[in-house]
């Protein structure tokens, strides 16, 4: 039976990306050696990093003055590196969920943190729209897509201070205006690559402004200067990212990814709103195109385990919701086909008809 991977992360990748990465693990570029065995300084590997950086710049239309870095530590290490490198006195944070809260917690170790708005009052089911950005803060931190709650900020904010964004789960799903950001980061394992690499897009002239000493590995300038090669980078995940970037380009780039994301999410939200058993959890104007969260209506709560078992029997993988939201979550990253979403919709319809 065909399986449809709706996992929230690590998550679905295009089959050809997995195959090309697997092939390079057996024999890298006809060298007779595995990608796992070669030096990251081997002359064959440098072009992998260079090409991945070039494709980042091309696909996201990144202006001059920004560096693209591939680091370790996951998005979670960025929660600490961001304030380490940018927080001199005060930083502003928009609280839209667990990840945003974790980012904010780290910043408090470095200075004053102003929470400009929070949607915690309604279990993060919406993105706050009305908030003031303090002009005297060093930066505003946002989380553009809230993987757990299924909410997404689909707009590049205008801000008097640099915007720093965690885009772990929606990078490359729509065109973004990079010039409106000071730094963008994310773990690769949602929409870019396998787990093990973190991407960072940083505006170079914002670096070096804090007065505290920064440990070498946690200083973005180290990695800008050394082109992500200060120490041994995660070569296999970077290679996998490169294959995925090539795939995105061949499909038509981020505009095409956005078109598909809109199509997939509309199909699924339409069914959630129509089906008598289910309801969406995110407020309609905050709904994510990447992580689609829904629950059984109150009167059908007892069907929770039965629906999960039914969906699993139909080949749906990873549709159990996060424990903080309950119910179900269908993560529809770039590699998810419309056919996959239609299969989930058919499953929901069939289940409804059996009740
Ligand atoms: C998954 C996720 C993280 C954590 O990423 P790690 O790479 O595991 O540290 C942070 N932010 C968001 C929005 C995420 O979806």
Structure explained in plain terms:
The chain has helices spanning 15-26, 46-59, 74-86, 98-107, 220-225, 235-251, 253-274, 304-313, 338-353, and strands at residues 4-5, 66-71, 90-95, 112-118, 140-143, 145-146, 151-152, 163-166, 183-187, 198-203, 278-280, 291-296, 316-317, 328-331. A hairpin with a 4-residue loop joins strand 6 (145-146) and strand 7. The model has no long low-confidence stretch (mean pLDDT 97). The chain is globular and about 60 Å long. The protein is α/β, with parallel strands linked by helices. The strands form four sheets. It has a seven-stranded mixed β-sheet, with helices on both faces. Strands 11-12-14 form a three-stranded antiparallel β-sheet, covered by helices on one side. The site of pyridoxal-5'-phosphate (PLP) has 12 residues, from helix 3.
């Amino acid at each position: 039976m065909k399986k449809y991977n709706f996992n929230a992360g690590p998550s679905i990748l295009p089959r050809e990306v997995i195959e090309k990465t697997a092939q390079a693990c057996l024999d890298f570029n006809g060298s007779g050696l595995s990608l796992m065995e070669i030096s990251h300084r081997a002359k064959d590997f440098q072009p992998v990093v260079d090409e991945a950086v070039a494709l980042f710049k091309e696909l996201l239309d990144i202006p001059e003055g920004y560096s693209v870095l591939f680091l370790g530590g996951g998005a979670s290490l960025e929660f600490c590196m961001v304030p380490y490198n940018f927080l001199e006195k005060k930083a502003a944070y928009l609280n839209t969920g667990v990840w945003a809260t974790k980012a904010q917690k780290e910043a408090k170790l470095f200075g004053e943190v102003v929470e400009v708005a929070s949607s915690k009052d309604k279990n993060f089911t919406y993105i706050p729209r009305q908030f003031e950005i303090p002009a005297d803060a060093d930066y505003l931190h946002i989380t553009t897509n809230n993987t757990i709650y299924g909410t997404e900020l689909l707009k590049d904010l205008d801000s008097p201070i640099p915007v720093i964004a965690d885009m772990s789960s929606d990078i490359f799903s729509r065109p973004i205006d990079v010039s409106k950001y000071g730094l963008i980061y994310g773990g690769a394992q949602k929409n870019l690559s396998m787990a093990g690499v973190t991407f960072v897009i940083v505006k170079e002239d914002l670096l070096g402004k804090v007065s505290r000493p920064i440990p070498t590995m946690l200083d973005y300038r180290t990695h800008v200067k050394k082109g992500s090669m200060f120490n041994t980078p995660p070569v296999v995940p970077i290679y996998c990212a490169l294959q995925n970037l090539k795939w995105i380009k061949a499909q038509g780039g981020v505009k095409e990814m956005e078109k598909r994301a809109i199509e997939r999410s509309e199909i699924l939200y339409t069914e959630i709103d129509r089906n008598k058993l289910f309801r969406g959890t995110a407020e309609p104007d905050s709904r994510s195109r990447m992580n689609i969260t829904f629950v059984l209506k109150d009167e059908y709560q007892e069907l929770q385990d039965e629906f999960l078992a039914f969906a699993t029997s139909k080949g749906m993988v990873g549709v159990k919701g996060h424990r903080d939201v309950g119910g179900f979550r269908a993560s529809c990253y770039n590699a998810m086909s419309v056919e996959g979403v239609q299969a989930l919709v058919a499953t929901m319809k069939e289940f409804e008809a059996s009740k």
